[in-house]
Specification:
single chain, alpha/beta, 4-stranded parallel β-sheet, 34% strand, globular
Length: 187
């Protein structure tokens, strides 16, 4: 069981792609967490659908970052929950409730452990958190990273991969004719 940890305030957002946005929050007090962990957000809103007012999100930020961030995809007005609609409509200074960070999908303690990370679409957020942490601390790890997306527009956080020294093998399932990289589905 967990408890609501604190209030967080939206500082600003950044569109990573047409349908993917990062939300930057200021916590009411410092949050101790490990890169790769997740939180639960509570966003009470009008016209709540049966999916409710709580959602789980991996923190896409590093514990070394100034802001706590989540990065999520919007499926469109006809497919998105009332929660996602309310989240994407938030304005700076809006307050939400957030649980304490939890989860054990984090980097192993032994830095020499070879790792293979596979992410599809927005499922790359825990890896982004870890790569941001690696970039900010200068720690090097033997990581093979395979990242699948639907189209080139959805390739996000390439600058973070570069700063962390991570080569991403990007596989695009619906590439344009101009795409020169890997094509297909990751299975």
């Amino acid at each position: 069981m967990y408890t609501i940890g604190m209030k967080i305030t939206l500082d600003h957002t950044h569109n990573e792609a047409n349908n993917i946005r990062t939300f930057f929050f200021r916590p009411e007090r410092p949050l101790e967490y490990t890169a790769g962990q997740f939180i639960e957000l509570t966003l009470k809103h009008k016209n709540e659908d049966d999916r409710g007012h709580k959602r789980w999100f991996t923190l896409s930020s590093s514990p070394t970052d100034e802001f706590l961030t989540i990065t999520t995809k919007y499926a469109g007005d006809d497919k998105s929950s009332s929660f996602k609609k309310a989240l994407f409509a938030l304005q700076p200074e809006a307050e939400l409730e957030m649980s304490e960070a939890m989860g054990s999908f984090v980097l192993p303690k032994l830095i020499q452990t070879p790792l293979v990370f596979v992410a599809g679409g927005i499922g790359l957020t825990p890896f982004h958190s870890m790569f941001e942490w690696l970039a900010s601390t200068g720690e090097q790890r033997p990581i093979t990273f395979i990242y699948g997306v639907r189209n080139e527009e959805e390739i996000i956080f390439q600058d973070t991969f570069d700063r962390a020294g991570i080569h991403a093998t990007i596989v695009v399932s619906g590439p344009s004719d101009a795409w020169g990289g890997e094509r297909g589905q990751i299975t």
